């Protein structure tokens, strides 16, 4: 199978060795690994994480024929006490050719700390004119997304550079109205292929992903199964191509 798919949101440090093989076999040729350091206490945890993904895991992915790119940032599930040091370092990491975005960043609990950290990273994204990948939580989603979009509006970032991930019917209207791009996490606990196909007009500007991690049951190449479902339902091949790689390639320049 020719490698044409782009995994637009995954976590390379959480993918088992066999997972890279599955991704390659399914036709994934490029991937974007988002930053996450659960329960991080120190900025150095993120610095080491950024280097590990851009070094060791990039080489590991390449051994399977996959070109790995990365996003850098402070995830709301792991905000270290000295988080401003990470923010200050982001422009340096973004200058690397293999780093294509800030992310995964966002809000879980609408705390003052989370809002401050998100605002600071959106300001970096705006100043550096790079995309930013926004996390959305499992609960209270419309209210959280509304708060994040309000912050983005005040910062003045270009909405077309924002990917609001884990999009579903509950928040897709907010995403589209703001002009951001929906990240489409294809798995049972997020967006399923039948729901996507039924509402293609709402999700057409999006980019599919599997958001693989080893902390929940999921498939490292799960979104490719959704692609196969779309083909079985005679979805237009141009739209499939855009959702499964074209939109991500255009946004990230890969």
Number of domains: 1
DSSP helical segment count: 10
Mean pLDDT: 96
Largest sheet descriptor: 8 strands, parallel
Radius of gyration: 17 Å
GO molecular function: hydrolase activity, acting on ester bonds
Protein name: TatD DNase family protein
Plain-language structure description:
It comes from Desulfallas thermosapovorans DSM 6562. It is a single chain. About 45% of the residues are buried. The chain starts with a strand and ends with a helix. The protein has a single domain (about 5-250), classed as Metal-dependent hydrolases (TIM Barrel, Alpha-Beta Barrel). The protein has 10 helices and 8 strands. β5 (about 130-135), α5 and β6 (about 160-165) form a beta-alpha-beta unit. The protein has about 250 residues and is of the alpha/beta class.
Blueprint (SSEs and pairs):
Elements: E1 5-10, H1 17-25, E2 28-33, H2 43-63, E3 67-72, H3 83-94, E4 99-106, H4 112-128, E5 132-135, H5 141-155, E6 162-164, H6 172-178, E7 181-185, H7 193-198, H8 200-203, E8 207-209, H9 222-232, H10 237-252
Parallel strand pairs: 1-2, 2-3, 3-4, 4-5, 5-6, 6-7, 7-8
Helix pairs in contact: 2-3, 3-4, 4-5
């Amino acid at each position: 199978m020719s490698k044409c798919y782009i995994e637009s949101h995954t976590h390379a440090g959480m993918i088992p060795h066999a997972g890279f093989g599955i991704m390659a076999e399914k036709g994934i040729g490029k991937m974007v690994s988002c930053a996450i350091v659960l329960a991080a206490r120190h900025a150095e945890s993120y610095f080491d994480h950024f280097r590990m993904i851009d070094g060791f895991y990039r080489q590991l992915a390449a051994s399977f024929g996959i070109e790995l790119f990365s996003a850098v940032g402070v995830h709301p599930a792991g905000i270290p006490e000295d988080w401003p040091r990470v923010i200050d370092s982001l422009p340096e990491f973004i200058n690397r050719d293999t780093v294509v975005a800030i992310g995964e960043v966002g809000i879980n609990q609408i705390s003052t700390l989370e809002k401050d950290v998100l605002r600071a990273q959106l300001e970096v994204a705006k100043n550096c004119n790079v995309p930013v990948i926004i996390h959305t939580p499992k609960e209270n989603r419309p209210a959280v997304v509304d708060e994040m979009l309000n912050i983005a509006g005040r910062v003045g970032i270009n909405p077309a550079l924002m990917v609001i991930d884990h999009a579903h019917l509950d928040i897709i209207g907010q995403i589209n109205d703001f002009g951001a791009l929906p990240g489409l996490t294809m798995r049972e606990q997020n967006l399923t292929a039948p729901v996507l196909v039924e509402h293609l007009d709402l999700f057409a500007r999006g980019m599919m992903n599997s958001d693989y991690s080893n902390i929940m049951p999921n498939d490292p190449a799960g979104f490719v199964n959704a692609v196969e479902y779309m083909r079985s339902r005679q979805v237009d091949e141009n739209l499939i191509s855009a959702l499964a790689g074209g939109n991500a390639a255009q946004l990230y320049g890969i």
